[in-house]
Amino acid sequence: MELGPCRVCGCPALARCSRCQEAAYCGPECQRADWQIHKQSCHRSREAPAERLQVPAVPAGPAGQAAAVAPKQKEIEWDAVRAMLGQAPARPSDDRADEAAGPAEPRVSGASPGWQSSPTHPTTPAPFDVHLVGKNNVEVAQAVVAKLKERGVCVIKAGAERAFHKAVHMEAKQLWDAGAYTSASKGSPSSPGSHEITFNARDDKVICLSSSVLDALGKKVQALKKVDEQLANFGWGIKQILEDQLGLSLTKRTPGMLSCYDGQKVPDAQYGFHVDNPYMTNMAVPDDGRRLTLIFYISDGQHWDVQKDGGALQVCMSDPRRAPSSTAEALTHPLFTVAPDCDTLVAFWSHTMFHAVLPVTGTKPRFALSTWFMGS
Ligand SMILES: O=C(O)CCC(=O)C(=O)O
Ligand SMILES: [Fe+2]
């Protein structure tokens, strides 16, 4: 049964909120991470005893990642969901099981006109804006925030060693060869609280690297776990400057999402133009809290040629402070191309920047690890 994307990270959802039966999540971490936001609309769907809405706020900070919000609301019975999928139950430290999830099939409509559009052609990839090697944390944070302020996207050279890239690529590829990725979302709600979804032309397959998945996979994801930690450190590392210069306060982040676009299995695998958190666009969906998208590209170490291999990330260079209302409007702006080459980290605003993954035309799978930081 397709539930569409997880409200938080976009991975395929496994169950719905057991109270309103509407918000869909891939796992307990995302459900918890979303509770402060979801509770504002959850009670509108179903009446519930007041105490079920009382969730203590947890201070934000580096340790305040997705898992830090511990709602007392009635949670989805994640163990039952895992059992349904033939997966092992969570360990005692993971979630408490409360109530079986009874997801309803979403009503599906076609794409709304003017919202989705096919990707355009690759242009020459932009050079790196920031090199991490040889800079201290404050210099990095200042340079990254300056670029985000100026144009909403920043391309960073991570400076990791070749052996590390190889290890990360090998892990992503082994999981791919083992068939561990699942189909990413095929749609998102077209209006708040609605089951009606619109397709968003997304051809990747994903694995949500929640802490339970990381624990279960253990050594198989050692290097990927390191990348996930580095992404977290990077986001928390620019937190203070973001706050000082833009008044944006990052509060928590989603678990890492490992994605793969496989041009061999899905010719021209791509992701059409979209905004990750499109609440400011004409889609009129609720704000899911996401503000900063971080993506680290994982390739086999060979140069990724966007002309030959395709798969470039293309970002519409609109005013970074506000989202264009539609793809058509976004595409009136120049396009900025990023090559999904290893050692490349890209940061952009989740709520204002339209972007797309251009068709993967070569035979190499295109891997990336992404995380989204929430903020207010
Ligand atoms: O992998 C990329 O370059 C971008 C993917 C993307 O836009 C997304 O997952 O929302
Ligand atoms: Fe995106």
From TrEMBL:
Requisite cofactors: L-ascorbate
Segments of skewed composition (Polar residues): 114-123
Ranges for domain Fe2OG dioxygenase: 253-375
Record's keyword annotation contains Lipoprotein: no
GO molecular function, one term: zinc ion binding
GO biological process, one term: cellular response to hypoxia
InterPro entries found in the cross-reference section: HIF_prolyl_hydroxylases, Oxoglu/Fe-dep_dioxygenase_dom, Pro_4_hyd_alph, Pro_4_hyd_alph_FE2OG_OXY, Znf_MYND
Keywords in alphabetical order: Dioxygenase, Iron, Metal-binding, Oxidoreductase, Vitamin C, Zinc, Zinc-finger
Residue ranges annotated for the MYND-type domain, each copy included: 6-42
Coiled coil: none
PROSITE patterns on file: FE2OG_OXY (PS51471), ZF_MYND_1 (PS01360), ZF_MYND_2 (PS50865)
Metal-binding recorded as keyword: yes
Name under which the protein is recorded: Egl nine homolog 1 (Hypoxia-inducible facto r prolyl hydroxylase 2) (HIF-PH2) (HIF-prolyl hydroxylase 2) (HPH-2) (Prolyl hydroxylase domain-containing protein 2) (PHD2) (SM-20)
